[in-house]
Amino acid sequence: MKVAHLILTYTNPKLTERLIKRLSHPEFDFYIHVDKKFSIKPYLYLQQYPNVFLVHNREDVRWAGYNTIKATFKCIKEIASTGISYDYINFISGQDYPIKSADYMVNFFERNKGKEFIEFENIEEQWLEALPRITKYHFVNFTFRGKYSLERFVNFFTPKRKLPGDLKPYGKSMFWMLSTDCAKYVVEYVESRPHLERFFLFTWGSDEFIFQTVLMNSEHKDKLVNNDFRYIDWSAGGSHPKTLNIQDFEALKNTDDLFARKFNANADSKLLDMLDQL
């Protein structure tokens, strides 16, 4: 059961190294994409581990912008180009940490082979607050001055946008565990339709709905399990999850999830020590 753990990061290479050590297993490889805005030098030492690879074709990731999807697509293509037959690609961030052992995860993937794990809700019926992400124009992926004023102007004078090709919109969390074939399907579907890429370029938070939308409108939908097995606490409110601390240990200990986010390795090393004993 060969798994490629894909890590999008820009924060703490020591936390990434700790994750790699925690999940050390002959069946696991790690592909690290460092945001192009940041130096890759602090991460170079991680190549000392034989199962660690730094993604070469990096992207300037912009929060809630389409560049996050571009980075993810580049990583999937780079993983596929290795010729290694990975059963799954597991997509995580640099502030994630495992709450189950490597052996537990290998067993999980073996028991569930053929299933695809990704959270999804119908945006038109269930996740209604996300609908303006698609129906309005958003310039979050751009950096020119006055972009928000222009955004308001454009949305005032233009009709609501609609997904091309009669696609029904689905979305939720940006993280997933998909077979390599399924992940490649999404990349090829979007990149072979330039009009769809242009549409997504002017959306907000596309990383939270592109994979779900493409897969739920495809023959793969019957294989999807509506669970990404991530423990994330949104109780702090706002658009960012709570940073977990030692008071969260019991909840983490008792969950069936495989990973949790987000962590601050410097502030909560004791919590990570306790998770390593699970």
UniProtKB/TrEMBL annotation:
<keyword id="KW-1015">Disulfide bond</keyword>
<keyword id="KW-0333">Golgi apparatus</keyword>
<keyword id="KW-0472">Membrane</keyword>
<keyword id="KW-0479">Metal-binding</keyword>
<keyword id="KW-0808">Transferase</keyword>
<keyword id="KW-0256">Endoplasmic reticulum</keyword>
<keyword id="KW-0735">Signal-anchor</keyword>
<keyword id="KW-0812">Transmembrane</keyword>
<keyword id="KW-0328">Glycosyltransferase</keyword>
<protein>
    <recommendedName>
        <fullName>Peptide O-xylosyltransferase</fullName>
    </recommendedName>
</protein>
<keyword id="KW-0325">Glycoprotein</keyword>
<dbReference type="Pfam" id="PF02485">
    <property type="entry name" value="Branch"/>
</dbReference>
<dbReference type="InterPro" id="IPR043538">
    <property type="entry name" value="XYLT"/>
</dbReference>
<keyword id="KW-1133">Transmembrane helix</keyword>
<dbReference type="InterPro" id="IPR003406">
    <property type="entry name" value="Glyco_trans_14"/>
</dbReference>
